[in-house]
Protein 1
Amino acid sequence: MPFRAILISKTDTGQKVEFVSLTEADLMEGDVTVDVTHSSVNYKDGLALTAKSPIVRRFPLIPGIDFAGTVRQSSNPRWKPGDRVVLNGWGVGEQHHGGFSEVARVPGDWLVPVPEGWTCADTMAVGVAGYTAMLCVMALEEQGVKPGDGDILVTGAAGGVGTTAIVILAKLGYRVVASTGRVSEAAFLKELGAAAVVDRNEFNTPVKPLAKARWAGAIDSVGSVTLANVLSQTNPEGTVVACGLAQGMDLPATVAPFILRGIRLIGVNSVTTPMPRRLACWQRIRRDLDLAKLKILTSHVTLDEVPRIGAEIVAGKVRGRVVVDIR
């Protein structure tokens, strides 16, 4: 049976994004075939759809770095037809056909179960961005950052990682300060749980080796000058968790925060996270992410709207999470 998908193809002048009709014969190798019900639009998806960054590693490719749905067919012992599953990362939407499609085929060892009591739509309201946010919170906890230690800064606060991180941290009792370039979103961010909102331009100034200490910890999805300034402002023995590069891949910092304040910089890789940690992360999401707050920060679109949303998310015009209702 034919199914509908978005396909990115290579052209002489760049790339082409189009809606196509495919069959299972067009899918890549894998031992589980999934009827996809939902996906989401993440910043990386926006980069892939707009060709702003070389996210797509092979052509033609179905984009979409996450999806959820129901197993149609499986030769993997972990899964049987009818099981509800989630996929985040593993190069899907980069070098393996992804989630902007009505059907997907992937290795079953990339999949995790939809949490009990949740819908497939709920899991995509979390998506790669929210899953990454929880990995960041877990990293702060593992470095000993406690709610009573002081303010936690979240940069890129109006985006998918930022909004979800605010909701989780606030529920866990942390005092969250949200940094955003969209100060008009201050009321929205406070509704999610931020105690205060600061303009991102405070972190876009020339970097001092050491600035006034302000943060017990931070979750940064921006990188570049912003991350360097955050490091210089972090309290002695504090922890900064880095998970993104919206501003750039460079890091114009010095060693001063590390050798004079004992700052820890922890990187989060959400693409190839080992399965035990991946499962533990989803257990924490189910326990510590307020579904009511998640709905506040989530909007829904159809597959037809994905190219437009991809461009808007790269332009910084999208707040929170965007779920794609595939079917």
Protein 2
Amino acid sequence: MKNIFCFLIFQLFAIVSFSQTIPYGNNSAAGKYYSIRGIKIYCEIYGSGKPLLMIHGNGGSIAAFKNNIPYFSKKYKVIVADSRSQGKSKDENDSLSFEMMADDEAALLDALNIDSAYVLGWSDGGINALLLAMRHPEKVIKLVSTGANLWPDSTAIIPSLWKEDKANYDSLKDNHFTSAAAKNDWKLFLLDWFQPNISLDALHEIKCPSLIIGGDHDLIKIEHTVLIYQNIPSAYLWIVPNSGHATLIEHKDEFNKIVDDFFTNPFHKR
């Protein structure tokens, strides 16, 4: 009996240890490249159940969700990809837009033979989630968007960050970048400097239940996050206390549970 107990403890320890050391974003056992709209998109899949698409922020990768994948993969089929021009998904083209990336996500679901999914997006990924629901409404069952903005000026972004970005733009705009890495970094910077450009009226096109999230010390102004919530017909709002932009990291346990509850329970209109 003692030997069996010790064996079970060892097995449990091994499972926990493995889950803590999974190299999210660099896991060949779960990862694969898919031909999506002219480029190769790298994607990893974890768990089984209803599909849940996760979309990371600017310059990020699959690893952004290392605190969330273990929780959700117990119940959902978690699909998480490196967005175009980020992580392992290379794109040498000059242009990049949120609309382009939202269309990529829809095409990825098609490639996986998934009709529709729950969607969780953070930062730029939150913008992509909103656009995915607007441009491909049939693909989104429910969406969660945290730390998203609709336009790129200081009415949406806290002034200190906007001023910092403006200084960077002014000092670098006349540079002629030569290396592929520098060109790509500049492309990603310009994405957030000039975009997104989503009107409040456009949000009315989102028909699926939505949970709009922001930290009370977010890089996105609380007033702007509230505007997003107010202009989506079926939406909840959660302003996370004592949180910056990384709500899903700083408050991972509470974040995971509340998002799961939102996905699981029926939506009640306000």
Protein 3
Amino acid sequence: MNHAAEPGPGVSAAPTAVIADDERLMREQLRARLAEVWPELQIVGEARNGIEAVELVDTLRPDIVFLDIRMPGLTGVDAARRIAQLPPRPGDDDERLPEIVFITAYDQYAVEAFEQGVADYVLKPAEPDRLRLTVDRIRGRLAARDSDDAAPAGPHLQQLLHRLAAQLNPGGKPNYLQWIQATVGQAIQMIAVDEVLFFISDEKYTRVQTPQVEALIRKPIKELVDELDPAQFWQIHRSTLVNVKAVAGVTRDFRGRQIVAVRGHPEKLEVSRSYTGLFKGM
């Protein structure tokens, strides 16, 4: 695998991408078409399945990842959900997510992703005109990332991925968690999910906070995201989920960061940059 050279002083790094598709010919065709419509884009890795895609993105941290929506072992949607939960690199506590582009032969999945504006798509086979439209949209989002007016895609992407996962498995209705079995002091207690104000994770445990109780579980946020109703619990930081019904208000601190006030609890929760789009109107 070739890695791009480091840019010299005053030179902007070329955008980088990973392509994931279980069909080699499709990977080769997309690589060739991208070279036509976006010659400066550097393809830094190729994956044959969703698991390889997550590993490559974790290692290479590309700007864009092209994911076949249907792959063996781990679908493109499931891979995107795992990518969205990758921890930031050491020293960077707020790394942006890569732009997600789904590769699909099924237009019904693609249209919803495209209309949401938080992910894009390429229909198989990749036609130059459609690919140019995708490239123009990605270029615009990459250029806007450092702007204060840019709306990070993180929270909206998570909600979109939940819906796409349901479309890929239409017979399986999601069974969201209703109860949490947690440690309170020396005892095990059952806590109704509806009573939880927020979840905050550290390296080993996740704190479950209700108006009356502080409890601990060993389940990390990246697993809870998939098990809780995304309409009720919003991820506002890589380590924090908050119950929407418990949000009393959002303010900004002296550094311009969004801070969530919680009903029934004095703690203030920081919103990381990747999730500020949730409260864009506030």
